[in-house]
Structure prediction request, 87 residues.
Amino acid sequence: MSLPRRRGLTAHAATTGVDRACRMLRLPAIRSPFSEVAETAEREQMSCLGFLAEFLLAECDDWARRRSERRIKAAGFPRVLTLTSPP
Prediction:
């Protein structure tokens, strides 16, 4: 079953819809910078496909970063070592 397409949404209604959808779908990397990136895309006359690709790639990058952090935390390493810290 598909939902009917809505045409003629105001900018505020569209932004609110994107925010709610991102919350429901748990897409924090898209939700937080959406307004700024949308304004930049409009100014640069980015295509819908380019706009969508930018956001999906940002979400994938954020997802991979959080996954890596979870794995490191789950590994239970005794302490964090960096190249600059003494052994």
Remarks:
- The chain has a mean pLDDT of 80.
- Helices lie at 11-25, 28-31, 34-43, 48-75.
